[in-house]
Prior knowledge:
Layout: H1 2-32, H2 35-52, H3 59-83, H4 99-110, H5 113-124, H6 129-136, H7 140-158
Helix pairs in contact: 1-2, 1-3, 2-3, 5-7, 6-7
Amino acid sequence: MYLFIEVQVLMDREKLFLKWMDQLYRVAFFMLSNTHDAEDAVQETYVRMLIKHPQFVDEEHGKAWLLRVCINICKNQIRFRKRHPQIGLEEIRIKIDSFREWEMLNEISQLSGKLKDALILHAVEGYSIKEISAILKISEAAVKKRLQRGREALNKRLGG
Length: 160
């Protein structure tokens, strides 16, 4: 009997979600201005509903819960974008003289964060070790070590 009731509640939640899914998508799309992010937000809303097992008093309560969760997920995505801006390598307008330079920049972008930061600041932006030390708030010895390890990793990736 208990299993039947649980399955029935799950089915009711699923029907509720399917009924309001288009509205959730519209809200997410208008907040995020991106179809992929909006789809992710709606999917994450459904996952949270499955994980949290909320008990709804009526359909209106369920709709309100879904909308609130979806809006919060969208706000979190917007907040994340503001704190962690992402720019793809192809979006950066750099004068690259040769395929070898492009290949090197591409390989640098594939390195771990610490090594990549030091190499970009030194090789691409032209900062000195002392300046990088101040920017990254690490010792000059740590900057030198990261540059050394970054160069070694690049040599290994580029085949010598």
